[in-house]
Amino acid sequence: MADPTDEVRLVPCEPGALTPDELRTLFLFEKLTDEQLTWISQHGCTMSMPAGGVVIREGDPAEQFFVLLSGTIALTRRIGQDDVETTRTEQRGVYMGATQSYLRDDGVERKYMASMRALDDSEFFVLTADDFSHIMREWFPMALHLLEGLTLGMRSTQAAVSERQRLTALGALSAGLMHELNNPAAAAGRATSALRQRVAGMRHKLAMLAAGKVDPERLVALVELQEDVIERAAKAKVLTAMEMSDREDELGDWMDERNVTGGWDLAPVFAQGGIDIECLTLIEERVGGRELLDQAIHWIGYALETEQLMTDIEDATSRVSSLVSAAKQYSQMDRAAHQWIDVHTGLDSTLVMLTHKIGDGVKVVKDYDRSLPQVPAHPAELNQVWTNLIDNAVQAMSGAGTLTVKTYREDDHVVVAIGDTGPGVPDELKKRVFEPFFTTKPVGEGTGLGLDISYRIVVNGHGGDIRLESKPGDTRFLVRLPLTEPSSA
């Protein structure tokens, strides 16, 4: 691990230590002419570093180009408070340092992209960044143009594909959201239409009751009974499918015995409202016989169905409101770009937004530690990470399996683990999943930027870490987010 306080203590450079013939043994220089090798020999030098020493430090000006002659080195990247090893090698001839000094000056200072430490006594051949740039520009002009074009083209392509991917993801999310909104909206529309018919029926039955010259006291008692029945319905115990069927049969038989018209149509309404034979008998007593029982049963039935329809409308509109709230939370409208957040809020809103894509074949398991503290973050960017990881997990399972979203604390980090029960990622591909444009999906189904973008958001934008653990039936992406603001560079 390379500590920022470590000093770079290379043994002073020794010019001319390598002859042209010795340089030719390095794969980087093996095709050069004698004249070119002589020039490099005269301008280069050798340096050594004892075991444990820091050769270059991430973030320092990239002033030298190193070629390993002997020993073992490790490259590390600083992530939050930790150094993560990215490469370890003892291959003679590998190079690092000012590898992009030949690029056209764009006004940006070139810096080392990683730290390098000698794991045992190591020796290097060294060129200055200016000399390495001179070699590339003067000796390989065509290759230089190709490399510059490749570098700039990669940046442009990545930006364009990234933008297209975001638009595609937005379109998919919008389509899913519209689908989810359509269901409760359609249910509310159907319930409203039915409610209009039931209210009209109630008015008609009320007129029939009034025309029947019902005693005023009996009518008042019937209205009070209606309120009792509705209150009973609100407190009704939820019945199983078998119990509901038995209750409907009992109520239908009771109404049929008393010649209630359409009794078998009313029975399901009364059963769903929690009405039993005892309650129907009470209604019969309050009406005062069977003369007006038919109208009274229908009137109360309309009242029950009206209550049930209003409950359906309330549920549907609540569902719409929750979806709109989730969409607003997901997009982080009217919120600061950077804030202290509860990671569960973003995870929940992302799951709601992806409900249509997850489908019925995937079981979602939430294993949250609700006691976790808030973390400093860009919530909209983290929602993009959750979207990419959940989307990948669902696709890996081909629409059938278990999606697990787990949160827990690990030292001074909050960890979000998103797992699936898919076939897993082969060992030879694990180290490549975060590479730009690398994808295991069929042509046209993936850009290969989702995990690369997620990596940059978590690592570069939040000072955290993201890693993959996978075996058949158990694949997990672990996102570690620090509990404190990352220190300024």
UniProtKB/TrEMBL annotation:
CDD domains named among the record's database cross-references: CAP_ED (cd00038)
InterPro entries registered for this protein in UniProt: cNMP-bd_CS, cNMP-bd_dom, cNMP-bd_dom_sf, HATPase_C_sf, HATPase_dom, His_kinase_dom, RmlC-like_jellyroll, Sig_transdc_His_kin-like_C
MF (Gene Ontology): ATP binding
Enzymatic class: transferase
One Pfam family per UniProt: HATPase_c
Species the sequence originates in: Paractinoplanes aksuensis
PANTHER family documented for this protein: HISTIDINE KINASE (PTHR43065:SF48), SENSOR HISTIDINE KINASE (PTHR43065)
Domain Cyclic nucleotide-binding: 28-136
UniProt keyword Metal-binding present: no
UniProt EC number: 2.7.13.3
Lineage: Bacteria, Bacillati, Actinomycetota, Actinomycetes, Micromonosporales
Ranges for domain Histidine kinase: 305-485
PROSITE patterns named in the record: CNMP_BINDING_1, CNMP_BINDING_3, HIS_KIN
Protein keywords: ATP-binding, Kinase, Nucleotide-binding, Transferase, Two-component regulatory system
UniProt name for this protein: histidine kinase
Catalyzed reaction equations: ATP + protein L-histidine = ADP + protein N-phospho-L-histidine
